[in-house]
Amino acid sequence: MIFTDWSKPGNRVLARLSDPRIEQIWDRQHLVAKQLAKDARAPQPEPECCTRNGILWDLAVLYPPAVLWTDMLPQAVLFNGPVVDRRLQIQTMLPSLGPQLEKNAR
Q1: Which of 4, 24, 29, 78 ranks highest by number of CB atoms within 10 Å?
Q2: DSSP conformational letter for 72
Q3: What is the mean pLDDT of each run of 10 residues along the chain (106 residues)?
Q4: What is the H or E stretch that residue 51 is in?
């Protein structure tokens, strides 16, 4: 984590990934990061980075369309970061997920 991670990101930072299917969050108490780490399991990809003091940060996570969210988070198809280094991977993966996502939104 860097010093700028201690406050909520501004619009300029959030605009870096502007696809409406992307949800960017800031979690002061790291509750989501802790749950993501707790529920991670094979065959979900293992992150190549982004753990500091046992907390996941700056992580891009993509889930397949129509997965069920239960008491455990579903397995992600992308679980890696830092986000800035995953931009091309996200852009490549979204079209394959997009038609199903758009169909589910109707």
Answers
A1: 78
A2: S
A3: 61 76 78 89 88 85 88 91 89 76 43
A4: strand 51-52
Q: What is the three-class DSSP state of 38?
A: helix
Tokens of 66: 């129509």
Give the total residue count for the chain.
Answer: 106
CB 46 within 8 A of CB 59: no
Report the alpha-carbon distance of residue 61 to residue 48 in Å, rounded.
13
Distance of alpha carbon 66 from alpha carbon 98, whole angstroms: 12
Range of the domain at 64: 3-105
State which amino acid sits at residue 51.
T
The domain total for the chain is 1
As given in the structure block, the two tokens for residue 28 are 């002061």
Q: H or E stretch including 60?
A: strand 60-62
